Amino acid sequence: MPESPALYPKIECFDQGFLKVSDIHTLYYEQSGNPTGKPVIYLHGGPGGGVSSHDRRYFDPSVYRIILLDQRGAGKSTPTACLEDNTTWALVDDIEKLREHLQIEKWVVFGGSWGSTLSLVYAQEHPSRVKALILRGIFMLRKSELRWFYEHGGASNIFPDAWDEYVKPIPENERDNFIAAYHKRLTGSDEEERIRCAKAWSTWECSTSKLYVDPVEVAKASEDIWALAFARIECHYFFNKGFFKTDAHILENVDKIRHIPATIVQGRYDVVCPATSAWDLHKVWPEAQFEFMADAGHSAKELATTARLVQAAEEYKTL
Q: In the UniProt record, does the keyword Cytoplasm occur (predicted)?
């Protein structure tokens, strides 16, 4: 797939480290760009997706101090794919611990998909620490969103070929609740079954993330370690309903962040996190900039979406 010309050139880190955030978890973080610049933190998707060097490139490195973080169990954080003590609220606390560790007062928060969920929840818990929000592919972990993508009758109607591969590991008599069926296998003792199910779960998402299916993206799901972390952690969060007390937790707490400058970028043809979620957020938060990308799906790497995300980061340079 062609690379967006809007991206900044590849850069190297000036700092990499590991932060112990609990008796169990140690998180990888890195910094690039301007060491004395304006802080921005990139929150990856999944949960369980991890960060990559590509994620540094949405931000002007002469202006921004760019911080990337692998959340619990993801990427280079340890232990890999660990579900113990791994909740939304633990991740929110981790972001604060990293902010304090790096001696940052306030930062711009950037997140897409699950990263948008975490960005919103973090901002609602710590609004005084957020300069601005850049959000893409809105996901609020509501039952309707999970049903759309992981149960029959939603995204399965658009990608029936990929759906058939997703359902294969699950017996017919358990196909009334795929999240529960996958959770049982991804947390089970049969290592071969865990890997097989992790690849099927991950391939489903990677096959549906772009308007045009990207073979490189799909191939990523065949990597055992990445697929296991991605699938286990995602399914763990979804099985536990995001650890939220109510289904509409994020919408119910928008007043806490209404004053924060924000940009919401949503692919019109996003099959993973359908546009209705972003629209629901927009309706209760009209103060935030909102834009549909007319020729994009879910991925941040699609050309129009990438360009708009970079533009948003440009707009917040002066904060």
A: yes
Catalytic residue among 44, 183, 249, 298: 298
Q: 2: left (phi > 0), else alpha (psi -120 to 50), else beta?
A: beta
The Cα-based distances of 257 to 70, 72, 148, 209, 280 in angstroms read 25, 25, 27, 28, 16
This model's pTM is above 0.90: yes
Rounded to 5 degrees, what angle do the CA atoms 278, 269, 140 make? 30
Determine contact, residues 85/25, Cβ cutoff 8 Å.
yes
113 is catalytic: yes
Phi, psi of 266 (to 5 degrees): -135, 125
**Nearest-angstrom CA–CA distance, 123 and 259:** 11
- What's the CA gap between 172 and 247, in Å, rounded? 28
- Reported as a single tens digit per residue, the pLDDT across 233-250 is 999 999 999 999 999 999
**236: annotated active-site residue:** no
Average pLDDT over residues 145-167: 96
Q: Which residue has the tokens 């000036």?
A: 14
Please state, in angstroms and rounded to a whole number, the distance separating the CA atoms of residues 58 and 298. Answer: 17
> What was the pLDDT predicted at 258?
98
Active-site annotation holder among 32, 270, 277, 280: 270
| CB-based burial label for 29 (10 Å; 0-12, 13-18, 19+) | buried
pLDDT at 290: 98
Structure tokens at 199: 């690849």
Quick check: 93 pLDDT over 90? yes
Q: pLDDT tens digits, residue range 99-108?
A: 999 999 999 9
3-state class (DSSP) for residue 314: helix
Q: Is the pLDDT of residue 1 over 90?
A: no
Which residue in the list 4, 113, 116, 277 is annotated as catalytic? Answer: 113
- DSSP-derived secondary structure for 146-178: HHHHHSTTSGGGT-HHHHHHHHTTS-GGGTT-H
Q: Is the pLDDT of residue 305 over 90?
A: yes
